[in-house]
Write a structure and sequence with these properties.
10 helices; binds FE2/S2 (inorganic) cluster; 370 residues; 3 domains; DNA polymerase, domain 1; alpha+beta; Ubiquitin-like (UB roll); Aldehyde Oxidoreductase, domain 3
Length: 370
């Protein structure tokens, strides 16, 4: 079945029924359409379909037959410039991963409501998540875009930058227009896609890995398990004792340990095959908190004991300061768990080099952890 629709004014057709997000990214390479969650929760993949804001990860190509789809790449030049200058001026861009989705959200709002209130803007972007800016600057940016679209002549782009004046980020244009390339936006000729089959249980012994049915999925090139990695490959930020993949007979240490890697010619084929890998586990008692981990008979998360690290920080003459204090309070203090929970797709692209090495583009701070 062939589905036809237009994207940024150009007619396109697709034979497979896939998520619109995957088609826009993997076939048309429209990298402004970001994959933040793949499941309708973040808004990074927002596009405008027949005038309405839609999350492209939540619709199939068959559902948009005959529609007209707009992504950031299809914005008229003048309007694009308004978004670039306004987001830059307001300081509304940090990592920039949410930005094209915010731009589409703002456009859908302003096309319907050219002069929105602050409250209406906040309501419009309520389903688009930004993990960096705190939203206030995005709201301000949309207010500036609205004024520019309405022909406010008081707003002139001030380029008389000097020491002490505010200047936009140097990469604001790339991030607003979706041209800034993140590792997930890298598409290479003949590129293979790898997805990981991860442990279903926090602590379980792997009894068997059956890849037979998964290997039959068209497009699957190979499936690798720990047995395919020569030697012992351990990773870890503080203690390098974590197996890169869990072999048959070994015990997992969290939901997320990698059991095997599926390699395929397309992302969709890899995802399909991943579901067909059958892993047999013997579920074991796990540790659920630092307190459980400290018990003498707790299962070992780390081979040499569950204490990952102990750090004592002191500055100055502590004993003297305490002795000379009018009051001394002894208390236990706890800090909250903090996880930045960035939107950017966690992934890496590795490219074989002519000298036999491999160049790795990673979203991470350490390629060994990606
Ligand atoms: S809402 Fe579509 S990728 Fe998050
Ligand atoms: S700037 Fe919004 S997620 Fe980073």
């Amino acid at each position: 079945m062939t589905t036809r629709f237009t994207v940024n004014g150009k007619p396109v057709s697709v034979d497979k029924d896939v998520k619109l997000l995957r088609f826009l990214r993997d076939e048309l390479h429209l990298t402004s359409v970001k994959d933040g969650c793949s499941e309708g929760a973040c808004g990074a993949c927002s596009v405008i379909i027949d005038g309405k804001l839609v999350r492209s990860c939540s619709v199939l190509t068959s559902e948009v037959a005959g529609s007209s789809i707009l992504t950031v790449e299809g914005l008229p030049k003048e309007e694009m410039e308004m978004f670039v200058s306004s987001f830059g001026e307001a300081g509304a861009v940090q990592c920039g991963f949410c930005t094209p989705g915010m731009v589409m959200c703002a456009k859908a709002l302003l096309d319907q409501n050219p002069d929105p209130t602050d409250r209406e803007i906040r309501h419009a972007i309520r389903n688009n998540i930004c993990r960096c800016t705190g939203y206030a600057k995005i709201v301000k940016a949309i207010q500036i875009v609205a004024r520019k679209r309405n022909g406010d002549s008081d707003l002139q782009d001030d380029r008389s930058w000097k020491v002490g004046t505010r200047v936009p980020r140097v990469d604001v244009r790339d991030k607003v227009t979706g041209k800034g390339i993140y590792p997930d936006d890298i598409y290479l000729d003949g590129m293979l896609y790898v997805v990981a089959v991860r442990s279903k249980y926090p602590r379980a012994k792997v009894l068997g890995i059956d890849i037979e049915n998964a290997m039959l999925v068209p497009g699957v090139v190979d499936i690798f398990t720990a047995e395919d990695i020569p030697g012992s490959v351990k990773v870890g930020h503080i203690i390098q004792d974590w197996d890169a993949m869990i072999a048959v007979g070994q015990i997992t240490r969290y939901v997320g340990d990698v059991i095997c890697l599926v390699v395929a010619e397309s992302y969709m084929a890899a995802k399909k095959a991943k579901k067909l890998v059958k892993v047999q586990y013997e579920e074991l008692e796990c540790v659920r908190s630092p307190y459980e981990a400290m018990k003498p008979d707790a299962p070992l998360v780390h081979e040499k004991g569950n204490l990952l690290g102990h750090t004592h920080v002191s500055r100055g003459d502590i004993d003297g300061a305490l002795k000379n204090s009018d009051f001394v309070i002894t208390e236990k203090f706890f800090t909250p768990w903090t996880e930045h929970a960035f939107l950017e797709t966690e992934c890496a692209v590795s490219v074989p080099m002519e000298d036999g090495g491999v160049k790795i583009y990673s979203t991470d701070q350490g390629v060994y952890d990606t």
